[in-house]
Amino acid sequence: VHDVFTSVAAKYDLMNDFMSAGIHRLWKDTFVSLVRPRDGENLLDVAGGTGDIAFRLRKAAPGAAVTVCDLTEGMVRVGRDRAIDQGDLGGVDWTVGNAEDLPFASRSMDAYTIAFGLRNVTRIDRALAEARRVLKPGGRLFI
After folding, report:
1. What is the pLDDT along the chain (143 residues), one digit of tens a residue?
2. Are 85 and 60 in contact (CB under 8 A)?
3. pTM, whole model, 2 decimals?
4. CA distances from 141 to 20, 81, 128 (A)
């Protein structure tokens, strides 16, 4: 999985548009509307790739702290570059990390999203345990 996403990082967004005929954008808008992010929350987007979900979370709640965590440096790099291109220099934190062993404190997140990424996780039970660990009591999980 790591090698595949490293090799496609630069063209990932274009591939998504092509393979879904752009429908993925509507799916992601709907997904974020279900999250209902609020200012002041800590929001974690795991397997966040190039930031599509994170940018939407940020737009919906500009006062939220949004973090992308992705397994591959290449995807994170593309996402950071997209943020810079959009003039959003401090709106999203970018972290390389594994969904099965997240580099975040326990009970530190108000919401955890993983969108399409769960299908690429090797040990889903471990990733879900990590989601539970980092979520605050009453935190929200969106897959």
Report:
1. 555 555 554 555 555 555 556 666 688 899 999 999 999 999 999 999 889 899 999 999 999 999 999 999 988 998 898 888 888 777 899 999 999 999 999 999 999 999 888 988 999 999 999 999 999 999 999 99
2. no
3. 0.84
4. 25, 27, 9
Residue 91 backbone dihedrals phi, psi, to 5 degrees:
-80, -25
C-alpha to C-alpha distance for 44 and 54, rounded to whole angstroms: 8
Dist. CA 95–CA 39, nearest whole Å: 21
Question: What is the radius of gyration, based on Cα positions, of the chain?
Answer: 14
Per-residue tokens: 65: 């702290």
